[in-house]
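The instructor's notes for this session suggest beginning with a concrete chain rather than abstract definitions. Hand out the sequence below and ask the class to guess, before any prediction is shown, which regions might be ordered.
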Amino acid sequence: MAPRVETYTHASDISDAVITAFESNEGAANIMYPFILKAKDLPRDGAQLWIAYFEDDEQVAFVLSCTRGVLGNYPVFIFTTKPPAERKPTRTTQPLELLAQALRASVPPERVFAVFSCEDITREFARIWADLTHIAIGSEYYRATFSYCTAATFTSSSALRPLPEDRDLTIWLGPAKESHTAKVADLCQKFAATSEPYVLTPEDALLEAKTLIGKKEVWVHMIQEGDEGEADVASIVAVTRQSKRVAAITKVFTNPRWRALGCAERLLRRVCRDLLVEKDRIVLYVGVENNAARVYHRVGFQGLAGSGEVEGVETWLELGFDRQSVELGFW
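After discussion, reveal the predicted structure:
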């Protein structure tokens, strides 16, 4: 058979071959596959779209998603089963052109405000989409290293700085409770402020916090100074994407007031330890210039902080399109 694409507008309609491709590549599919598992219960309202590219041997090579979350439309995400050596434009232009044409036939061009995938795929798809729609490529929103941690690489302890003895600090780590909502919302908004262009209003930050806590997808590092001090949320770690064998860390942030106390590393280590009881792998994306990579490296995430090349660790890129011509979403 000739190469072809299939379009799906509800998660329950997605081909078994696509699901099998995700299950065989759960780490790389960490953005798309967990959302599909949740989306099977969503209404058929036209807000969700997936397009799969099948090669002439009926193998799934690419899947594109154009979906919507609680806070708005997501960027276009592209998953591939192809290894890095097979992602050069000479091998990917035709499949990506077919995906772009199917996307253009399904959504208005202003819906596509950004694309996120492994770097070679992002750059080629953005070029194709810009040529197709005459909407120029805009800013580079996010350039990140995709990394992973397993039970074999996880470090249960390290040179984690102890709490200062002269400050009488008490800590508690665990899943966030409803009583933590306002403080989690404040940290969600502060985190978003570092992630232009995806900033949050106070109202949206509160909605995100309520959603994370209600779904038990966020952990907190509580801290209190002295007997009279107010207990505060020093750090948060969110895990919003999980499939059978893989979980993804999607947000790590420390309140500036409590930095330099090792809170983020302490909480991340606790979350990873708990997740690895049931999961084979934990994945995350970290900005290529983000100093947090050193923290993740100490916990056991691979290929970070100058530790050398590791198979499965690679650069992902999000490119935006001309902000004057698109409708910005959120993720």
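Then share the key points. The chain has a mean pLDDT of 96. The CA atoms of residues 8 and 15 lie 9 Å apart.
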